[in-house]
Design brief:
- It contains ten helices and 14 strands.
- By secondary structure, the protein is α/β, with parallel strands linked by helices.
- It folds into two domains: about 220 residues, 3-Layer(aba) Sandwich (Rossmann fold); about 70 residues, Alpha-L RNA-binding motif (Alpha-Beta Plaits, 2-Layer Sandwich), CATH 3.30.70.
- The strands form three sheets. Strands 6-7-8-3-9-10 form a six-stranded mixed beta sheet, with helices on both faces. A four-stranded antiparallel beta sheet has the order 2-1-4-5.
- Helix 3 packs parallel to helix 5.
- The chain is elongated.
Length: about 325
């Protein structure tokens, strides 16, 4: 497979809405375009609509309104072609327990009308450290190995788009690293990866773009670096010569808080502001006779940004 360098849209979602029979609106007119060959992380609290969105794109759930096109095929009017372009690794460990690993991945490939290709299947199984288990019945495998089999099944028919729905839940660290190495290799060959994860550090490490969904709405879709630059905060920590029991009145009005039992001051400022205010802070500290022995700065993590988004204007985080 030759590397593909392209920027065209491979998944196009327009006005996607899902209202269940009980009246619950899981998705509210979602618009989203995902580019070929990128890793897109979809983040959101439980119940935010992540799995519903994935399920509609994969043809498992029917939308109430809106459209989805995958690799140029409409998921409603051209279902077979659209679905053949998709590989899905679900959260649940549903596998054919009595089948061998080789049999189940071979069947998955044939299910999408692909001709047998033992060389490709061997490559997939080896990349997931499953080759020595190819003849084992799935029921005899550990939970981590079963997770690998799900990934192998999703890759058996060489999809253009791979959905990973919480792929590393309950997976050991070694397998997690192997999986992300495989994801990077797939991306290099033009496969689009869309993942949901509760391990936000994974999204921060892996993703090209981030989408945050909450209460069925996309709160933000942004390049990861741009998102962190726009919404990130920097903190300056000053380690004091002596502890403070409370902030003196002369420092009131500043975004300051005491930490480390009064031995440190943390100053939070906006990275996008024209002036950081640090010079004024240091001047006022000097006026108050507060000395510090060391200082260091740090930026917001993606997790902090995510929490601020889902607990922002829309209020409480979804349970």
């Amino acid at each position: 497979m030759q590397p593909i360098i392209a920027a065209e849209t491979v998944v196009a979602i327009a006005g996607l809405t899902k209202t269940y029979a009980n009246g619950h609106q899981a998705l509210k007119a979602v618009d989203l375009e995902i580019r070929r060959g990128e890793i897109f992380a979809l983040l959101g609290p439980n119940g935010a609509g992540k799995t519903t969105l994935i399920s509609i794109v994969c043809g498992i759930v029917t939308a109430s309104a809106g459209s989805v096109r995958v690799a140029g095929h409409d998921i409603g009017t051209d279902f077979r072609a659209a679905r053949a372009a998709i590989g899905l690794v679900p959260q649940e460990l549903h596998t054919d327990a009595f089948e061998s690993v080789w049999a189940t991945v071979s069947f998955s490939r044939g299910l999408f009308g692909k001709a047998p290709d033992p060389v490709h299947l061997e490559r997939v199984l080896r990349s997931l450290s499953l080759w020595d288990k190819k003849d084992a019945r799935i029921m005899t495998l550990s939970g981590g190995m079963k997770r690998r089999v799900l990934i192998a099944k999703a890759l058996a028919h060489e999809p253009q788009v791979l959905f990973l729905d919480e792929p590393t839940a309950g997976v050991d660290v070694e397998l997690r690293h192997e999986m992300w190495q495989l994801v990077r290799e797939l991306r290099e060959h033009g496969v689009t990866i869309i993942l949901t994860t509760h391990y936000i550090e994974e999204a921060e490490d892996m993703a090209d773009r981030i989408g945050v969904i909450n209460h069925g709405e996309l709160v933000v879709v942004e390049d990861k670096a741009t998102l962190m630059r726009k919404l990130g905060k920097k903190q300056l920590t000053l380690h004091l010569q002596g502890p403070l029991s409370q902030l003196p009145p002369g420092l009131s009005g500043l975004p300051l808080e005491l930490a480390d039992e009064g031995n440190a001051l943390i100053y939070t400022y906006d990275t996008q502001a024209e002036a950081t205010g640090i010079a004024g802070l240091l001047r006022r500290l000097n006026e108050q006779g507060i000395d510090f022995k060391d200082l260091n700065s740090s930026e917001s993590s993606l997790e902090e940004i995510f929490v601020s988004l889902v607990r922002g204007p829309r209020g409480r985080e979804t349970a």
